[in-house]
Write a structure and sequence with these properties.
Layout lengths: L3 E5 L4 H12 L3 E6 L2 H11 L5 E5 L7 H10 L8 E4 L15 H27 L5 E8 L1 H4 L3 H21 L4 E8 L3 E2 L1 H4 L2 H5 L3 E2 H13 L6 E5 L3 H4 L3 E3 L7
Parallel strand pairs: 1-2, 1-4, 2-3, 4-5, 5-6, 6-9, 7-8
Antiparallel strand pairs: 9-10
């Protein structure tokens, strides 16, 4: 029976890319969507409905992903062996000195806390399985570059979450990895538009090769996969997330 990938943040560009990658590896997908409209958009960008099961949930809610896992455990939804987490999308451009508390919390809730909720809900389920599993997190270079202070700070929190997750899962059956993205990815139909081409956007279907590679290569474990440019799609580069002490 084919394995299944749970995609959290499935209707965003990176989530769509993950679905394409998972399907290419002959795995099925359990995609969390907001509603039927967002599901239809996802199906259109992926190019197929085959092999994809959708479930509606609010991933920003504390109990959103946990509710999905509970349905999996009860047999209402297919079991999954892999998790791809790409929750985010809030891009507040307010300067740091002017950032309101409401804007700060909006950024952290959508761009960081939702990813934490997904991890907390799914990793215990993966740990109960006897076979190897994976958990993949997408982060952005904005956390190092500092553009847009609100989302930049959330990426810093995700970097640290990844370090903690690597340590926790170092000796478990969960192969945790972080994908560190430093270039623009668009859904295929948008990536060919003039403005996107000028910005060097990569098609989601092309970026999907990265996730295919991570799923296929067991030696990529506890690592940050470095994605600085299109060449890093063709030849994967990674470094350990394990802390090695002061440099």
């Amino acid at each position: 029976m084919p394995e299944t990938v749970l995609v959290v943040g499935a209707t965003g560009t990176i989530g769509i890319s993950a679905i394409i990658g998972a399907l290419r590896t002959k795995r099925n997908v359990l995609a969390i969507v907001r509603n039927s409209t967002s599901a239809d958009k996802m199906f259109r960008h992926v190019g197929t409905r085959e092999g994809i099961t959708t479930v509606e949930a609010n991933v920003i809610s504390e109990h959103g992903v946990q509710g999905v896992v509970d349905k999996v455990k009860s047999g209402e939804l297919p079991a999954f062996q892999h998790v791809y987490c790409a929750v985010g999308g809030v891009k507040t451009v307010t300067p740091l000195k002017d950032l309101t508390t409401a804007e700060l919390m909006e950024n952290f809730d959508a761009n960081y806390v939702a990813n934490f909720y997904a991890y907390r809900a799914t990793v215990p389920y993966l740990l109960t399985q006897s076979n190897p599993t994976t958990w993949t997190l997408i982060t952005g270079a904005i956390g190092d570059a500092g553009w847009w202070s609100g989302p930049a700070m959330t990426q810093g929190a995700l970097f640290s979450m990844g370090v903690a997750a690597e340590l926790e899962n170092r000796e478990t059956n969960v192969r945790f990895n972080e994908m560190y993205l430093a270039f623009l990815v668009n859904v295929d139909e948008d990536a060919v538009k003039e403005e996107a081409v000028k910005m060097g956007a990569i098609k989601a279907s092309e970026f999907a090769k990265v996730y295919e590679g991570i799923l296929a290569r067991d030696e990529i474990k506890g690592s940050k996969v470095l994605l600085y440019g299109p060449d890093d799609i063709k030849t994967l580069r990674w470094e350990s997330k394990a802390w090695t002490g002061p440099r």
